[in-house]
Write a structure and sequence with these properties.
- With 146 residues, this protein is of the alpha/beta class.
- The protein has one domain: 3-Layer(aba) Sandwich (Ribose 5-phosphate Isomerase B, Chain: A), CATH 3.40.1400.10.
- The chain contains six helices and five strands, in the order βαβαβαβαβαα.
- The longest helix has 15 residues.
- The structure holds D-ribose.
């Protein structure tokens, strides 16, 4: 199960990506927003990431105007590794090397076609483990020191 969410700046792109997930028969839950009225992206990041932390969802796709604000908010939550991407290489490598569990994109930055490509790479690529696990463990240790 994938959790998906956006603020108003990412709303249109979120709706496009929902259609893409439906075409691929990938189940998702949408934590909002549900129209283009202004909302605050930290509220959406929190609602979405709680579903990953609880185990209800495996991965998240989050959108705001740039993808940056919502990724900063998501990364404040324990166990969340959110990557703001605008290129397919990073969307793939953040799974292989960072074991990212949230992909963030900017509705005012990337086209729907590019976002679909990044979503596919993000959802279909496995974490490589090995030396990368040691680095993830160090990220977790930093998180636990706070
Ligand atoms: C909202 O106008 C905008 O600031 C937000 O969507 C996002 O781009 C923040 O990083």
């Amino acid at each position: 199960m994938i959790v998906i969410g956006s603020d108003h700046g990412g709303f249109a792109l979120k709706e496009e990506i929902k259609k893409h997930l439906e075409a691929r028969e990938i189940a998702y839950t949408d934590v909002g927003c549900y129209d283009s009225n202004s909302v605050d992206y930290p509220d959406i990041a929190k609602a979405a990431c709680e579903k990953i932390i609880s185990g209800e969802c495996d991965k998240g796709l989050l959108f705001c105007g740039t993808g940056v604000g919502i990724s900063i908010a998501a990364n404040k939550m324990k166990g969340i590794r959110a990557c703001c991407c605008s290129d397919p290489y990073s969307a793939k490598l953040t799974r292989m090397h960072n074991n990212a569990n949230v992909l963030c994109m900017g509705g005012r930055v990337v086209s729907a076609g590019l976002a679909e490509m990044m979503v596919d790479l993000f959802l279909d690529t496995e974490f490589e483990g090995g030396r990368h696990q040691r680095r993830i463990d160090k990220i977790t240790a930093i998180e636990n020191e706070q």
